[in-house]
Amino acid sequence: MSLTHYYTGKKVWITGASSGIGAALSRTLVDAGAEVLLSARTEDKLQEVAKSCADVSKIKVLTLDLADTDSHSAKTKTAIEMMGHIDIMVHNGGISQRSLVKDTALEVDRRVMEIDYFGTVSLTKCLLPHFIERKGGSFAVVTSLMGIFSSPMRSGYCGAKHALHGFFDALRAEHHSDNIGVTILCPGFIRTDISKNALVGDGKKQGSMDEATGKGLSPEQCALAMAKAISKNKAQALIGRKEILGAYLHRFAPALLRRMMRKVKVT
C-alpha cells in the first residue's frame, strides 16, 4: 500500500511538531495526503512549520505544553473540534538528558519523566475515549532505542522511554477489540537538536551536539520510515543505522551488550 493511499483523508495530531522529527513528519504526511494538526509550546515555530508544508490548507496549529497536564482535556476537546475527528495521534514531543546518575538532581529526573512519560500518558487518556467511541484509531509513540536498552549519561531519559513501552504495550492489549492500534517508533541517532536541548545534571541545557547525533539519519529519512511503519500498523519499528544492532544484542546477547555499554564513548 502506498503512503498516499493510506494517508489521504487521514486526520493526524502530532506533538513536538515545531522542529526536528515532528516537523519533518508533518511535511511527509501532508505530502501523502493527510490533514495534520501541529502541536508544541511555541506558536510562531509551529506557524513556520505550517508554511513549510506543500499544502498549507491541510495544516492546523494548536499550542500544547506536555508538562501542563491540567490543560490536556480541554486541548483534546479543541483538537477534535478543529479536525472533526482524530485518526492518528503521534506522540513525538519530549526532552532528553545527558549526565551521570551521581551528578543528576532528582528534579531533572522528575522533569524528564513529567514531559516524556506523564505528559504523553495524560494526552493519551484524554484522547482514548474518542478512539473507543469511533471504534478505531492509532497511537504512534516516538520513544527511542533507549526505550529498549540503556546507555550511560541518559539514565532519566532511558527510564522515561522504557516506561512508555510498558504503558503502550498494555494499552495495545486492552484495546485490541476496539480496533485501536499502537506503533512504537524507536529512532536511534537522528540529526536534530535533541542533544543541544538535553538537560544536564543541574537542569540547564547541554547546548552542544553529540557527535553520533550529528552523524545520524536526517529528520526526513526518519520521518519517512515512521510514516511507513504507521501505515503498516507495525507494533514496533527500529529506525537508524548500526545503532539498531543494540536492540538485537539486548534480546539475543544481553551480557555482550552490557560489556559494550561499559566501554562505549558517549556524550
Describe the structure.
It is a single chain. The termini are far apart. Helix content is 48%, strand content 12%. The protein has 11 helices and 7 strands. β2, α3 (43-52) and β3 form a beta-alpha-beta unit. The chain has helices at 3-7, 20-31, 43-52, 72-83, 106-134, 155-174, 194-197, 211-214, 219-231, 245-252, 254-263, and strands at residues 11-14, 35-38, 59-61, 88-91, 137-142, 180-187, 236-239. By secondary structure, the protein is α/β, with parallel strands linked by helices. The model has no long low-confidence stretch (mean pLDDT 96). It has one domain: Rossmann fold (3-Layer(aba) Sandwich), CATH 3.40.50. A 7-stranded parallel β-sheet has the order 3-2-1-4-5-6-7, with helices on both faces.
* Low-pLDDT sequence parts: none
Query: What kind of sheet is the major sheet?
Result: 7 strands, parallel
The helix/strand series, from N terminus to C terminus, equals HEHEHEHEHEHEHHHEHH
Summarize the amount of helix as a percent range.
40-55%
Name the shape in a single word. Answer: globular
Strand order of the largest sheet: 3-2-1-4-5-6-7
Named CATH topology = Rossmann fold
The CATH architecture can be named as 3-Layer(aba) Sandwich
End-to-end Cα distance, whole Å, is 40 Å
Please tell me the total number of domains: 1
Assembly state (oligomeric): single chain
Mean pLDDT: 96
| Number of H- or I-type helical stretches | 11
